[in-house]
Amino acid sequence: MSILSTALERVKPSPTIAISTKAAELKAAGRDVIALAAGEPDFDTPDHIKAAAVKAIAEGKTKYTAPDGMPELKQAICAKFLRENSLTYSPAQVTVGNGGKQTLYNAFIATLNAGDEVVIPAPYWVSYPDMVLLAGGTPVIAPTSQETNYKLTPAQLEAALTPKTKWFIFNSPSNPTGAGYSWDELKALTDVLLRHPHVWVMTDDMYEHLAYDDFKFCTPAEVEPALYPRTLTCNGVSKAYAMTGWRIGYAAGPEPLIAAMRKIQSQSTSNPCTISQWAAVEALNGPQEFLTENNASFSRRRDLVVKILNETKGITCPTPEGAFYVYPSIAALIGKQTASGTVITDDETFATELLEQTGVAVVFGAAFGLSPNFRVSYATSDAELLEACTRIKEFCENLI
């Protein structure tokens, strides 16, 4: 008899973590590796946020808090939602988790029964389907295409919904494509959802502040207030505030749902790190000017990467509206082979050969549910991006 549960058979390890680990191992072995796989800003956490954490330690604010977040942080989150998204929530409608991933997972565990479906547009963040499967639900993948810049159309959403659909999960700007939905594009989707009152909406707004050019972020309950009673609006401090390791995510929604998620967390991890919570209070309430400065760097890096990749034989790369990813297509390279004779049969082979031959680590598109593509994270220095993209270009142009 195996010690492992059958639930574990439904999920697989995170491909992005696996590729980042492989790149780190090669680098430790002396290889010249440029890792473009991790979704993590290279900027340091701003000083005023770090100072708030140090102050909390000095003042002895190191004890347990309420299982899903202390009152001061919940108040800061309510203020953020009102200030930035025109959404009114009370602290009882807010939950704080150990990163955004736990918040999403708590919601699935608290709501999904066998046979319940969750509609997930593809390409998707790698963890969505596996979290649904682990919670006992059924992922329903709704593929998009490069023709729509990897955005789901109303017709595609309508076709994916069934009487068994419990959740529609929505991510904008997107990981892995960086695609952001305009107000009108999102309103077209919320109009569909209004016709299906049994479907709940889970938003992943983690990249809200990473928006470029004229793109204006919006979130479903803001665009369509009638969806407010059945929307869980999720966010966190990891990406925009360069606080990935601090592990603070949060969500707001109807009180009965939040209470159920709180129950799950009270019997699993309990409260997020107290010091991190105080840092998050400062992140949300404190100076925000650095966001503009960081975005200028990200926008410049995006343009650099998109330009070089679009100049590369066999690659087409849309310009994303936000986040810090691009999702180029390699459809024209499938069937070609390397000088050593390896045939590029799919995007996983492409990514493997790219890493082995050039030392550039990217994530293959199949991990995100849509091929043949790969994801580049441009959350690293201009110099590294220039070198990495040059290597990618040379690799592609040497295929025969």
UniProtKB/TrEMBL annotation:
Kindly list the cofactors needed.
Answer: pyridoxal 5'-phosphate
Pfam families hit by this protein: Aminotran_1_2
Coiled coil (UniProt feature): none
Q: Identify the residues that the record assigns to the Aminotransferase class I/classII large domain, covering every copy.
A: 32-392
* InterPro entries from the UniProt entry: Aminotransferase_I/II_large, AspAT/PAT-like, NHTrfase_class1_PyrdxlP-BS, PyrdxlP-dep_Trfase, PyrdxlP-dep_Trfase_major, PyrdxlP-dep_Trfase_small
> Which GO biological-process labels does this protein carry?
amino acid metabolic process
An example of a GO molecular function for this protein is:
L-aspartate:2-oxoglutarate aminotransferase activity
User: Which keywords does this Swiss-Prot/TrEMBL entry list?
Assistant: Aminotransferase, Pyridoxal phosphate, Transferase
Q: Which domain of life is it from?
A: Bacteria
Record-listed E.C. numbers: 2.6.1.-
Instruction: Kindly state which reaction or reactions the protein catalyses.
Output: L-aspartate + 2-oxoglutarate = oxaloacetate + L-glutamate
Its assembly, as annotated, is:
Homodimer.
Question: Which family does this protein fall into?
Answer: Belongs to the class-I pyridoxal-phosphate-dependent aminotransferase family.
* PANTHER family, alphabetized: ASPARTATE AMINOTRANSFERASE (PTHR46383:SF1)
Q: What is this protein called?
A: Aminotransferase
Name its species: Planktomarina temperata RCA23
